[in-house]
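Hi again,

Forgot to attach this to my earlier email, sorry! This is the prediction with iron/sulfur cluster bound. I've pasted everything inline since the attachment limit keeps bouncing my files.
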Amino acid sequence: MNALAVRDDLATRTLLSKSALNVADICGNKAWMEIHHRRPFIGNPDVTFGSAVDAAVEQVLKAIAAGIPLGAAQPMEAAAEIVERDGISIHMEEVEAAITDFVRDILPAHDWTDCILQAHLNVVMDGWGECDGHPDIVLRSDACWDLKTSKRARGTARTVELGLYALMIEATTGRPVPEVGYLTRVRTKTPSWQTLSTPVTDEFRDWTREHVDGFVRARRADELLNRNAPEPINWTFPSGPKNSGLCRTCQYNPMFGGTCRMAVRDPLPAGGDEG
Ligand code: SF4
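Structure tokens for the complex follow:
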């Protein structure tokens, strides 16, 4: 049987990407560790849940885009593949409820004809070099949507990651992206899907470019400053974690064999990452 949930292995990717920007945003020191002391990601149930919902929704949308009856889609089989891949068990009934609600609440709200799922964008951007990305959903209108799972509702869709996707899609197609947004499965006691989007304006494009410029400058300065250093030193990514819960599952925490000296580890804080 062919695998349903196929994803590129991004563990060793070093190109400019949404993930690299996100890491720098949540913890500067982690962004620096990713450059000089990279270690494999440590899985956790929240991230596996997010990946399982991603894979399951993808099967639903593939069927819709291809005009295949929904009954022939295999969302739960794709979710099960993710669980097997990660070796982490999650509540599959929670994934199933997310898919049922997605079909009821989100499917009717958009035109999915010819939508592209997990498009591989690879484009040389002026001043930044080669950029790489895999937006979850690009509609025929060129609107771009990212699937998320979270314990709380999101506050804004105006983020650098979505801005970067918009700029990369525009550089690839030559057409303006009208809108970017998140479809988020909010995992409260009464879970639901949250739809949050923002128009892609020139001001949003400039704002995104300014943020990405800063990251690129920091990476280049790091390369310059550490080029001949016997041991690399973090000069350019000095910030720590946005919240100490991020250290709870971080592969650079000495509790898990890493060498981060900024880690919160005793006691390990509550909280953590989500997919
Ligand atoms: S352990 Fe904490 S401070 Fe260190 S890199 Fe990870 S998130 Fe950042």
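The two ends are 27 Å apart (CA to CA). The chain has two domains: 14-43+209-275, 45-208.

That should be everything now.

G.
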